[in-house]
Batch of 4 targets.
Target 1
Amino acid sequence: MLAPTICRSCASMSITEVHAEMNLHFPGRSLDQPSIFAFPKLVVCLDCGLTESIMSEAELHELREFAPRAVKMSL
């Protein structure tokens, strides 16, 4: 997937792509509960700060598998 070339928020062309490390926690779960580690690309507007992430298919698969259980547990 290609990063956008124009910011969706302010229409700036000052966009950059960076790599990130994230530890995803779900609502209703304490921080000592299992979480998902992800290493997405972040697309950042250098003018307004809007940030979007692009996750790999493997990370999305793990998120899809884990998220429904986390949501049920938080209700």
Target 2
Amino acid sequence: MMSRFGVLVAIAVASLAACTTPPKYDWGRYDPALYSYYKNPTKLADLTATLKAIIDAADAKHARVPPGIYAEYGYLQLQQGQDQVAIGLFRQEETQWPESKVFMDHMIQVASIGTTGKPAASPAP
């Protein structure tokens, strides 16, 4: 009786394991790069390169860039004084992920202040 139960459990587990789906997005080496950067902020170049590689890999495969990657890469560009590049990345995030519109509009406004010294005109609703 017990051995039949064990066989049934093994079959059930094997069946469920076969139902797993592959990840929806290719996050590349995002997790280790972010962790490394948090532990040692001097590894900013590594995180920047990782984010660019994720974007480039998705573009090459005609796949979607994972949520937040354009925004994070844009923020790093903003920190490095690349305001126009950051604005373009924030717009890409907003286009690909419409639910980020409010936050990305705010980040575009922040980046625009850095560029012009004045707040940008608010986008039409």
Target 3
Amino acid sequence: MARVERHFVAVESATGRRNPAGFSPCQGVYHVGTERPRTAFIATHYNVDFSEHYLAPLMVERGFGFLGWNTRYRGNEPWFILEHALLDIAAGVDWLKQRGVERVVLLGNSGGGSLMAAYQSQASEPNIGAVADMRLPEGLQDLPAADLYVSLNAHGGRPEVLTDWMDPSVTDETDPLSVDESLNMYNPDNGPPYAPAFIRQYRDAQAARNRRITAWVLAEIERLRHAGVHERVFTMQRVWADLRMMDGSLDPSDREVGVCYAGPARRANFDARGIGNCSSLRSFLSMWSLDHSHCRGAPHLARVRIPALVIQSLADTGVFPGNAREIHENLGSDDKQLEFIAGDHYLLEPEGARESVADLISAWVTTR
């Protein structure tokens, strides 16, 4: 087994300066062997700490470097603004290149899939607009592009996954117990299995809920502006309600039905924990809104023209085969590959799943 050295990395970015308390906005861990690698991975997420990503030591053992990277929004999702996150990722890519890395591989794992696609999209063809009344920061037009893109158990886009998981039966956003039973997927009168008519009605109502919240956010920004106030946070519950969680005939896979990442789906849906459960007004527009977010997957994936590998675990309870097929289809690369594998979202099962994925990624990168 190769020796893995771990080096703490902390840098500023174009719009992120060192905090008065002393910490830098961009932090991570560089995993490397005894020899300087020519190819290195960088992995980042919207919110989750990827500094010690489970693939890091496995890729080092296969001869690569691995920068588990965090933007200023690690654990700080309510204030996420995409354009600043991209500048923070650029700081990580620059750091790698300054240390002799010749080829950079973007690893887009889970929610990080669409974030890394947005990075490569902006680096190759600047396209991102500012949120609400904000201005685009300098430097966003000159991001250093990467060379390869890997999507691993990734959602198509941030607004898409939130909308797919939203409970459309919510009738009052201030009351997490409010339910329109005609749209309640947990009402046994509605299924599972779910009838095609109910599915269409349900999906339409999910998009409508996203747009109702968006409309409220825009109106709230104006209301606060008239009062001389810039921002506020708000909460949103009931976001464990994708029909596929309870109906295994929809987008079939080897997943356990009835559960989500937070446990039994119905119970999780009425708990307070979930994606997007706390947002500032502008972070909702930047990350979650169907009509305003630049975190949507398809437009960015179309501008990802570097070689791309899409890997999807078949026992994943939150990312489904259809998601991986859409990512693969939307990618603009002529050189793209789709692989389905055994395993759950984190590749904890079956035994050896993580090593198998590391072998798959290593072989794919090496041939390119």
Target 4
Amino acid sequence: MSTQKRISAPRTYNIKRKQDTWITRANPGPHSKGALPLNVLLRDVLGITRIAKESKKVLHEGKVFVDGKIRKDLKFPIGFLDVISIPITKKYSRIVYDHIGRLTAIECNKKESDLKIVKIKGKARKDKKYQLTTNDGRSIIVKLSEGKKYSVGDSLLIKIPSQEIIKLLPFKVGATAFITGGKKVGSIALIKKLMGDKVSIIIDKEEHLTIKDYVFVVGEKTMELKLK
């Protein structure tokens, strides 16, 4: 199905649930369950269009870029830290979680729209190279001599759409992280202690405990990009 009932849409959708009956359903894609369809982002979150027909026209004209690539599918899935660029209007946005776990958009400048932070979810040796898979479905190939410094859980600051690695952001004590789930979703935290699958974090000088999967490193000491 290309649509679903608005009232039963994922909790990550930042929408008015009783406004209409139906809403666009996202296609399967690189992000986990809960990704926003591009139509919902343009209409309900960014307010660029009013109806799906308008979204379709804007997309068909090739005016919308996601992570530096033109996207024309109303149902293309949009997720955490994706960059939405509409150069003709000079509007650039990055997708983040708000304090109740909904995907929302914050403005970013043109310079930062060429950069993205991704999290390493898998690492495999391929012949004389390493393949790094990321939270947004990317496969980044690195030299064998360089591969050993990358670990699952680390983040990478990359250029988009080229995927050139600018900086490694290790998952370690002292790093700055964005919390992507749980009671502190949407918060910026400092990693205080690693305890297996649990992580002790500091938010506004208060210590909290969360699970490792919710901790997404976004900087060594401070955020590499504007996320608030």
